[in-house]
């Protein structure tokens, strides 16, 4: 009798593991709906559009310290390369128009304002991640704002470095290296999409790791957040390809008329936010299952020998 009770309370791992995996994913989707994750995703998408143009202006000012406007323009081009073509076509002309007539110095008040408004998406995403992890923000607003500004600054700087490495570096190497087969490899078009999506996945994964580890309140280890980050990157790359195909066979102008391009971008950003928040819900679910397995979950108490809870 005691053995049957023990197996009921603690089922064998070989039986429990597959069930846990499915329950964790479906539980994350349900919790996303239950805790207004889809509504928060809409707020994140709107904040992303609002902060996109200040971020690009700030990026142009930062590029002026290193490689000039050409480097900034190439960085913007790389930024939108991994997006569906219709989303990029809706945003790139407006971003280029803003960067063409707006120039700032990073050490002026205008530079600070561009950085401040560029943190809008990061701050909204922080609130969404806190909700997904069920944590309450205990840091002061200046500390949170400073962290958001630092993340924006690091993101802009890493974009410029990657742009130089991907665009300027290979072009320079192709001019300096003599063997023809090396030049052919560098100029190979079949490497383009594979390298672009691989690099995009690595960059997105690194940014998501920073968001899950440091942006959201509370403390989590790398092993706690890695499953959700990998899930988000894989799903986002898949959805980006599917969304691009869907746009090629549909006509959004029937629903949104002249606002169709803007709505295409907004819907894609909202789907992106849903995927990020779902990754956090998945991480939280896995952490809860680990606590249950270890018997450390606050709501999980084993009965004592007399049948009463401890």
List keywords for this structure.
globular; 310 residues; 13 helices; disordered N terminus; disordered C terminus; mainly alpha; 0% strand
Reading the helices and strands in chain order gives HHHHHHHHHHHHH
User: What structural category arises from helix and sheet content?
Assistant: mainly alpha
Which residue ranges are poorly predicted, with pLDDT under 50 across at least 5 consecutive positions?
A: 1-15, 185-191, 299-310
- Helix content bin: over 70%
Number of helices, counting only DSSP H or I runs of 4 residues or more: 13
Mean pLDDT: 75
N→C terminal distance: 21 Å
**What is the total number of structural domains?**
1
Specify Rg, calculated over alpha carbons.
23 Å
Strand elements, count: 0
Q: What does the main sheet amount to?
A: none
Provide the fold topology.
Blueprint: H1 2-9, H2 13-34, H3 37-63, H4 68-81, H5 85-101, H6 109-118, H7 120-133, H8 141-176, H9 180-186, H10 191-215, H11 222-249, H12 253-256, H13 260-294
Helix pairs in contact: 2-13, 3-4, 3-6, 3-7, 3-8, 3-13, 4-5, 4-8, 5-13, 7-13, 10-11, 11-13
